[in-house]
Amino acid sequence: MGHATRCVPIIRTLLSNGNTVLLGTTSLTEKIFKEEFPQLERIQLPEYNISYSSVLPLWLKLGTQYPKVLKVIKEENELLEKLIKEKKIEVVISDNRYGLYSKNAQSIIVCHQLNLKTPFFEKWSNSTHVELLKKFDEVWVPDHKPKDKRLAGDLSENVFSLNCKYIGPLSRLTKKEAEIKFDHLFLLSGPEPTQTDLLKSVIEKLKDHQGKVAIISSSPICDDLNDVPENIYLKKLPNAEELSALITRSRTIVCRCGYSTLMDMYALGKKDLILIPTPGQTEQEYLAEYWSKKFKSVYLPQDKLETYTF
């Protein structure tokens, strides 16, 4: 969903420049795009349906599903060729969907990971990834070009001489002025079942907490939680305006360190961050370490949550 939210400012710019925009959505991104752009035509794209695990590292679980991903890439590429002819599409902008390229349209991919960090097979992973990126005419990197200003660190370094344009960080959120209401905001995101696992751990951790706390999550168990303490405000999937307000009104943000989340924190000027990377997700582990050094964020491994004092 982070890939969808960071496309919102790109779509707004396209519309403000007089372009006609057709949106490719999935069941996961339909709510966001319908909420932000109810007037635009939407086309359903094939679902990757990647499954995650509470036990296996993310990189290993993803590796086992690589053949399925390749199959979907082929399906979405075939669908795109039909759409280009039917809709007379001139430009295709894809965010991390590697089959949405064509020789019959200007093809652009939005990607902040030009230099993958993997625990094993890093050379092979980068080689495979670069070949996918080279199918596009341009790579738009949502980060600053000067290395000393980067939000993604080495991840967004163009080490493979791709045709890149650094377009700056992207966020759909708007900075607001408001008084602090919550001591901590737990902004829980990412794949299942790891998000629900973290939500359960957070609620258990906060059952005797005295301060005012807000929790945002998309976990399916949010609707069934009846024993949440009175000092905890739990909100499931707020819209962009509500999310901006909650983040602004919170002193400390405790969150996963997916790149879209970090760009949101940067856009809203939030500096008091506690970052809990998704276990086994090497990109988030790298970003948590990088932000702890560059921006003085707190790097909190999930297995240390129980002993941490908020």
Present the secondary structure layout.
Layout: H1 2-5, H2 8-16, E1 23-25, H3 30-36, E2 42-44, H4 58-64, H5 66-87, E3 91-95, E4 106-110, H6 122-133, E5 138-141, E6 164-166, E7 182-187, H7 194-205, E8 213-217, E9 232-236, H8 240-248, E10 250-255, H9 259-267, E11 273-275, H10 282-294, E12 298-299
Parallel strand pairs: 1-2, 3-4, 4-5, 5-6, 7-8, 7-10, 8-9, 10-11, 11-12
The count of DSSP E runs of length 2 or more, i.e. the number of strands, is 12
Strand content: 15-25%
Mean pLDDT: 92
Distance between the termini: 28 Å
Shape, per Cα inertia axes = globular
Indicate how many domains the architecture comprises: 2
Elements, N to C (H/E):
HHEHEHHEEHEEEHEEHEHEHE
Overview of the molecule:
The chain has 310 residues and is α/β, with parallel strands linked by helices. It has two domains: 45-166, no CATH class; 182-303, Rossmann fold (3-Layer(aba) Sandwich), CATH 3.40.50. 34% of the residues lie in helices and 16% in strands. The chain has helices spanning 2-5, 8-16, 30-36, 58-64, 66-87, 122-133, 194-205, 240-248, 259-267, 282-294, and strands spanning 23-25, 42-44, 91-95, 106-110, 138-141, 164-166, 182-187, 213-217, 232-236, 250-255, 273-275, 298-299. The strands form three sheets. The chain has a six-stranded parallel β-sheet with strand order 9-8-7-10-11-12, sandwiched between helices. The protein has a four-stranded parallel β-sheet with strand order 3-4-5-6, with no helix packed on it. A two-stranded parallel ribbon has the order 1-2. The radius of gyration is 20 Å and the shape is globular. The protein starts with a helix and ends in an 11-residue tail after the last strand. The mean pLDDT is 92.
